[in-house]
Write a structure and sequence with these properties.
Elements: H1 3-30, H2 32-35, H3 39-49, H4 53-70, H5 72-81, H6 83-102, H7 109-139, H8 153-156, H9 159-183, H10 186-217, H11 221-242, H12 246-268, E1 271-273, E2 283-284, H13 292-319, H14 326-331, H15 341-344
Helix pairs in contact: 1-4, 1-7, 1-9, 1-12, 4-5, 6-7, 7-9, 7-12, 9-10, 9-12, 10-11, 10-12, 11-12
Family: Belongs to the cytochrome ubiquinol oxidase subunit 2 family.
GO molecular function: electron transfer activity; metal ion binding; oxidoreductase activity, acting on diphenols and related substances as donors, oxygen as acceptor
Membrane topology: Multi-pass membrane protein
Amino acid sequence: MDLNTLWFWIVAFLFVGYFVLDGFDFGVGMSLPFLGKDDVSRRQIINTIGPVWDLNETWVIVAGACLFASFPEWYATLFSGFYLPLLLILLALILRGVSFEYRHQRPDSAWRNRFDWMIIIGSAVPALLWGVAFANIVQGVPLDENHHFTGTLFTLLNPYGLLGGLTTLLLFFVHGVTFVALKTDGELRENARKLALKAGLVTVVVAATFLVWTIVANFSVAGLIFAALAAVSLIGSVVANWRGREGWAFTGGALTVAFAVIALFASLFPNVMPSTTDPAFSLNIYNASSSDYTLGIMSWLALIALPLVLLYQGWTYWVFRKRVTRASIEAAPHQASDTTPDEKVTA
């Protein structure tokens, strides 16, 4: 395996980590109007991700930085051509982060309701647009001989791209609702389990359609294998949730997202940005990459940094592994932050 191929899969790994981790964050945020029956239950839902949401979000920063350093031509074409949808994603992430920090600053319900809707919108918009963006990357976009994107926002809003967005929206929603069931108790836990089951059945149909379309349009043996694994994992997650095994259901959801993203990258390889104008204008892992010297230095840095990041992430989830109970929320000071140290102990 040469360095170009290695870094293609390192970038893929970072996006897998981002979509698995921030994916259930998005799902938790989108679940508020369905599961948040009162302020206590909404605080309980938000506290499930309170200690980890910002750490999960940093994966996209690392992925973007590595993309810029390893494949600068890919980065330039992607961020210039997809400027508007990526800007909307960024604004939505800022909106969501601000809402987590400010919703507890006033006790009145109107204040909190406004920030709750900001959390919902700030979760749903990235969940949809990330799918639209990656579906278009795999399908290909119009590029000229200088690798400049020649389309518009409406070029990206094609049937395949929109189906990709709907797929990620539903996958993240089910993934997040399953996480709520795993991390809460009582009525909220039961309602989350029932909602995950209903939404999971719809997601199976939509995700299967998208993965089949992907394989037919961009066939690769590796893509087919990982698409099949994603389908099996999703069905297993739904069955586990039906049987009340939230831990296995969440694991199946995480594997579904991971296998689906790997299937997309496998279908894309060795291209990184196919051109629908002329295949000769496409970007691949060689004409879009940095020098071998740069990739070599980065490989040593990744060898040192990635294990440390994974260890720290694992330790964080171990510390906050317990359920967020309704009693702990009711006992916490009402004016305190939604992620106070006392509440985090029970998260």
